[in-house]
Structure prediction request, 341 residues.
Amino acid sequence: MFNLKTLVRQNILALQPYSSARDEFKGNDGVFLDANENPFGTLNRYPNSDQKILKQKLADYKKLSSNNIFVGNGSDEIIDLIYRIFCNPNQDKALTFTPTFGMYQVAADINAIELITLPLNDKFQINTDALTPYFNDDNLKLIFICSPNNPTGNCFNASDIEFILKNFKGIVVIDEAYADFSDRESWSKSFESYPNLIVTQTFSKAWALAAARIGIAYASKEIVQLLNKVKMPYNISQLNEKAAIEALDNRSTFESNKRIILEEKAKLIQELKTLDIIKKIYPSDANFLLVEVDDANQLYQNLVEQKVITRNRNSLVKNSIRITVGKPEENQQLIKALKNS
Ligand code: PMP
Prediction:
């Protein structure tokens, strides 16, 4: 049986979330002499520490309660916080399926946690038979599932994810950084059926706000409370919160940019198919394409010399290059550079 309290590190369970005198006062019309701020200027006050307005907008958009939403300084921060809540350094373990997003390993290393990596199969899907024996490891606290997966681009089979959610007694994190580009149903509300689930999403991709560093976690209110205990008091700057609120208020810009990116992706696939240099285009549910070429290291260099920067993923998937879908003229520049390579 899933039991949240037994999964949480003892020192974290005992913590109380940071609270300021202003949180207790609640109004906006006081004389604020409580936080050693400067009384002059426009960015002189500390921001609201619980991002109330942004969370309410997200709650309305997602048709969820704001108690089920956590806002992080990018989803990168959320990944780190999850390790810190659930994994005792030099004792507990996490698991993921490779090739995948590198931050699960980086955050594991920083927190002195062993990350078990199970290879995806030749269709880049999860091998659940290889995973099952690990369910008995009491020190395995977290499973990270990146879907759509970076760098392969595909979503994992819903039935495999469901199998993990049902059978793993620890926390399952589904990283949906690219889900806005996919037709597949998001898992962001599934914590209602699976209390061990945390879904992360981000404003960095489809919302065009990578510079603002806004990541979101959707989870049970008990897990959201734990994230609130561990985060830095002012993890989201007022400017960045405002940028995310404005993006949510201008949903038509988000929709039209997304449509252009998806149209450009379809065009790019057609054009890449005509080039001999491209051996394979892997199926993608994201805003990027993983392609196989004869010699990724050489091609990557040729493209850099023509000022087109892609991501050489040769070390993860042999002779592969990951290409982000850009603006129409950027994609044309890429095609031209590929033809010249
Ligand atoms: N998850 C995945 C799968 C990613 O590819 C990235 C960014 N490359 C992130 C998370 C990080 O997103 P954020 O900008 O929200 O930290």
Residues 251-273 form the longest helix (23 residues).
